[in-house]
Each structure stands twice: as structure tokens, then as C-alpha cells.
Amino acid sequence: MSPPLLKLGAVLSTMAMISNWMSQTLPSLVGLNTTRITTSDTLTQISPKEGWQVYSSAQDPDGRCICTVVAPEQNLCSRDAKSRQLRQLLEKVQNMSQSIEVLNLRTQRDFQYVLKMETQMKGLKAKFRQIEDDRKTLMTKHFQELKEKMDELLPLIPVLEQYKTDAKLITQFKEEIRNLSTVLTGIQEEIGAYDYEELHQRVVNLESRLRDCMKKLTCGKLMKITGPITVKISGTRFGAWMTDPLASEKNNRVWYMDSYTNNKIVREYKSMADFVSGAESRTYNLPFKWAGTNHVVYNGSLYFNKYQSNIIIKYSFDTGQVLAQRSLEYAGFHNVYPYTWGGFSDIDLMADEIGLWAVYATNQNAGNIVISQLNQDTLEVLKSWSTGYPKRSAGESFMICGTLYVTNSHLTGAKVYYSYSTKTSTYEYTDIPFHNQYFHISMLDYNARDRALYAWNNGHQVLFNVTLFHVIKTEDDT
Predict the structure, then answer these.
(1) CA separation for the pair 239, 199 (Å, rounded)
(2) What is the DSSP string of 326-385?
(3) Strand order in the sheet with 368-374
(4) How far apart are CA 243 and CA 255, in angstroms?
(5) Domain-embedded: residue 64
(6) pLDDT single digits (tens) 162-220
(7) Residue 320 is part of a domain; what is its CATH number?
(8) pLDDT over 70, % of the chain
(9) Does residue 323 belong to any structural domain of this protein?
(10) Which parts of the sequence belong to the Olfactomedin-like domain (predicted)?
């Protein structure tokens, strides 16, 4: 038995002896046994009092008090022998009580030690259990390693068997090669009729036929707008960005014009990727400030509205010079007839498959939209069409194949609401929704080369894809 358990045994043994002594000796000392003392007087049963139980009391002829047990009252006969015996007994009880208290302290201390040892034993038990589990895990791991090694060795068995069957295997290989050769021969017979030159010629003929088909397509009619695709986030809430619809396929320069007034700086980027990364290639300082955000780059030149005027400027990026400028007769300017968002957007310059256009409003047309086709070299008005759509009620507009498409708002819920065909001089109300993702459009222009709408949407440069409906021309079409 370990020392803590020996201590616990000694404690329990001591407590047993004390308990035995109290049950046998103490009752006889205090009169709690079955003995009764009788006197000349009648024996009287007294009710229990506090602390002790009194069985009987009486007086002898000499007047002495005889008690079988001492009650705690101080008025009982204090001078008789039983009283002295009781006091002695009380002293013994007090001494014994003190001894029991000391023993109790030792017992509590040893008990706490035992509890501590019990906790340690439980910890050891848990550790042994963990070691047992780890042993199983370790054995499992070793078993797994052995199994893996066995799995590695297992393929050696069929290898050994293969050495016995090499001749048969080679025969099988020969048969498979013979079958494959037959299949390849069949494929060669199927495609062997066409050599490379003939296939190339067929591709060229197909491309030619596609071009002829494209030439027979009439200019498209807008059917659907999808997107937008957010290209970049930059600049103020208002601005313009664009590419040249007449540029070659290798020329993908992007131009960027922030703000709608009080600015003359045009930034150029060599490609869309450079525009996204901010790798600016060149900066142009225009001779005049522009008004609005409705500029257009067309055939290498920038067309914009000169600030606080109805004058249109043609600026060459190659030479850095103004090539032409002309007043747009009767056109309102400086927020007289802007789009609904304002921003000096009175004159909107745009381009499509047909050419260069100006969209504006005049007093003569009661503030309704006027469409004018311009000569790209001289800026002379070639022809004009007067519509019945109020310019101030339009959110933005753009041209596709000679048809003007007008949005009903520049805010959330915008859609293409109205269109006017310059070919037929007729209009119609449409319902072509598009997602105004950033809630405020200040520029919306069509690019015929990209078949896309460029937009400046609340400081976001975005692109919309368009779906056009084409009709194939017949021999009778003029």
C-alpha cells in the first residue's frame, strides 16, 4: 500500500476507535445507559432540555440532589458529587473535542492529499489510455507502412509472370499494331482525297462568300443591349472615353477626357490594356476648353464642342492642330437645351456606319431634337432632320446605322425609349432596357467597329454589347 493509502488507513482506524469509545463509555459516564437510580421519592421522568437529556432527579433525606444525567441549568444542585463528576466529564469531553478537532484537521489535510493523488491517478490513467491508443495507432501506422510496402511488391508478381509470357505478349502487340494500321489506312483513304492546297483554297472561297454575304446585309436595327462590362473606375462623375471606329485593327488607341467643362487635357493610351493599367502614352493640350461630354474621335481627329459656344472643333491628333471649326446654326448651347443631367450637354457629336452626326436642339424646333449629318472635313451640315422629342427630356442618345436612339433617363431604370430613322424620316417608341449599374450616365456613344456602346457611368468607364437585326438585300433593293 502506498504512503497516502497507509495514512488514510490510520485515520480511519483512529476514527473507528473513537466512535467505539463514545458508544460504550460515554453513555455510562453521563447516565445514558439503562441503569436507574431510585430514592425514597417517586421516580419522575423529566422532559428533554437543551444540550443534554435528563432522565430523573430527586433529593435524599439530607437534602442532596441525585441525578442520572446533568441538565445544563445552573440552578440544579451544584455541590453534589454528580455535579462534580459531570464537570469532570465535561472537561474530558472538551479535551476529547479538541483531540477530535486536531484529528479532523489532519484528516482533512490527508483527505486533500488523497484527492490530489486521485487526480494524479486519473491523469496517469488517461495517459495510459492515451499510450494504449497511441500504441494502436502506431501499430496501425506500422501496419499501413507494411501494407504499402506489400502493395509495392505486389506488382512484382505479375512482372515475374510476364517474363514467362513474353512470347505471347509480343504476339498480342503485333496483332494490335496490325489492327491499328488498318484503321489508320481507312482514315487516310477518307481524308487523303484532299491535299493541303485544296483545303486552303476551300477556306479562301468560304471567306469570300462570307464577305459577299456581309455586303448584302442592310444596316442593323437595335434589338437588345447587354452588360455592362466595367473596364475601369477613374475620374469624376462626368467624362468621356472612346476609340476610333475607323482605325485599323492594329490601332487600338483609347482617348480619355475627364469632366464636362474647364478642361483642355486629352489623355491617350496605346491599347485598352494600357488604359486599364493607367499606362498613359501621350497627352494633348487642346487650344480650347470643351463643353459637355459628347465628343467623338473619328478617322484620327477629335470633334468637340467649344466651351460657351455652338462652335464645333475638329482637332488632329497627328498634327496637334485645329483642322476645322464651324458654328452649328441655331443650336442651343451652355445649358440651354442639355440632356436631363445638364453638364453643358447641348450638342452631342457622334459617329456610326454612315458617318459623322450632330444632335442638338433649336428654338426654331421648339427645343426638340434636331439631327444633322456633317461633312467630316469641313463640318458643313449636309442634311438635317427635325424630331418631336424634347431634348431636355432625353437622358442620352446615340446613332446606329442612321437611326437615333434616345434613352428616357440618365438614372436608374433607363431604357431606349424613342428612335428616329433618318432613312425614312419616321419615329417610333421602343422599349429596350439596359442595366444602369452605377445610376448616373453622362456619356453614351456607339462604336461601329466594336459594335458596342461606350459609357461613362458615375466615374466608371463601361461597355455595353448591342444586338442588331440585319436584313439581307435582294436584287430589287436600291
Answers:
(1) 50
(2) EE-TTB--SSSS--TT-TT---EEEE-SS-EEEEEEBTTTTTEEEEEEE-TTT--EEEEE
(3) 348-351, 356-361, 368-374, 381-390
(4) 6
(5) no
(6) 555 555 555 665 566 666 666 666 666 665 555 567 767 777 777 777 767 666 666 78
(7) 2.40.128.630
(8) 55
(9) yes
(10) 218-470
